[in-house]
């Protein structure tokens, strides 16, 4: 018998792209891959909650914005699946590629798979956040990664039960990779044709990456001081 699969999608003010992402997951060849769909509306001020209700088995609604890490942490604790899949809300039609992410965990014996996305279509940052994250993960866990910030992941429930939960903020993926590698879980990275919203070299893009840099740095310091045993 195949293990059950829960897809968990954190969403904040995603009323435009979230319905496209969720519709893609209901295509017949995709729908047979999963058993439960949870959306965590992270205090949105738009119609994200109502859009999610049209598709999801359950919508968890935060009264205020708590951040991506808190959304994913609350989501997996409510999920019933043996395999948990984290997807971003803005994947749009490319969400139908989720099977490629699930397969290494469901069929090939890996504990966690991480999607390596195609190169961005326009110039974004200068690689500072990605470089900090990749180097920090290697120094703290010995694991070399090409996708340190990828939020598209499938993992066995036991991984999160063993490490005790997820980091907060934008450092959630970095913390998860460090803890999983330190705990001896088998991790793989695979190329998947997911696409999501890209930030450019404008004020909002630099602001976003600045927040990421600070959050990743805090996560690395925390993992250095409080390693998972």
Automatic annotation (TrEMBL):
EC class name: transferase
Its EC number(s): 2.4.1.266
Superkingdom per UniProt: Bacteria
Domain Glycosyltransferase 2-like, chain residue ranges per copy: 6-163
Reaction catalysed by this enzyme: (2R)-3-phosphoglycerate + UDP-alpha-D-glucose = (2R)-2-O-(alpha-D-glucopyranosyl)-3-phospho-glycerate + UDP + H(+); an NDP-alpha-D-glucose + (2R)-3-phosphoglycerate = (2R)-2-O-(alpha-D-glucopyranosyl)-3-phospho-glycerate + a ribonucleoside 5'-diphosphate + H(+)
Transmembrane stretches, start-end: none
Cofactor requirement: Mg(2+)
Keywords carried by this UniProt record: Glycosyltransferase, Magnesium, Transferase
InterPro entries: Glyco_trans_2-like, Glycosyltransferase_2, Nucleotide-diphossugar_trans
Family: Belongs to the glycosyltransferase 2 family.
PANTHER family, sorted: GLUCOSYL-3-PHOSPHOGLYCERATE SYNTHASE, UNDECAPRENYL-PHOSPHATE 4-DEOXY-4-FORMAMIDO-L-ARABINOSE TRANSFERASE-RELATED
Protein's UniProt name: Glucosyl-3-phosphoglycerate synthase
Organism: Ferviditalea candida
């Amino acid at each position: 018998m195949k293990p059950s699969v829960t897809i968990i999608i954190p969403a904040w003010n995603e009323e435009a792209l979230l319905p496209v992402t969720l519709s893609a997951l209901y295509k017949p060849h995709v729908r047979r891959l999963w058993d439960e769909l949870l959306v965590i509306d992270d205090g949105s001020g738009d119609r994200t909650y109502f859009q999610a209700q049209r598709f999801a088995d359950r919508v968890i609604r935060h009264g205020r914005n708590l951040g991506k890490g808190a959304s994913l942490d609350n989501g997996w604790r409510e999920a019933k699946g043996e395999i948990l899949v984290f997807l971003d809300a803005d994947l749009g039609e490319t969400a139908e590629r989720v099977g490629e992410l699930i397969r290494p965990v469901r069929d090939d014996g890996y504990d966690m798979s991480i999607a390596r996305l195609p190169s961005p279509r326009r110039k974004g940052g200068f690689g500072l956040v990605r470089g900090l994250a990749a180097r920090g993960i290697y120094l703290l866990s010995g694991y070399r990664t090409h996708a340190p910030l990828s939020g598209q992941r499938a993992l066995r429930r036991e991984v999160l039960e063993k490490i005790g939960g997820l980091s907060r903020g934008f450092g959630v993926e970095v913390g998860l990779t460090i803890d999983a590698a330190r705990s001896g879980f088998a991790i793989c990275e695979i190329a998947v044709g997911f696409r999501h919203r890209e930030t450019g070299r404008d004020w909002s893009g630099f602001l976003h990456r600045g927040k990421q840099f600070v959050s990743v740095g805090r996560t690395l310091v925390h993992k250095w001081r409080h390693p998972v045993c």
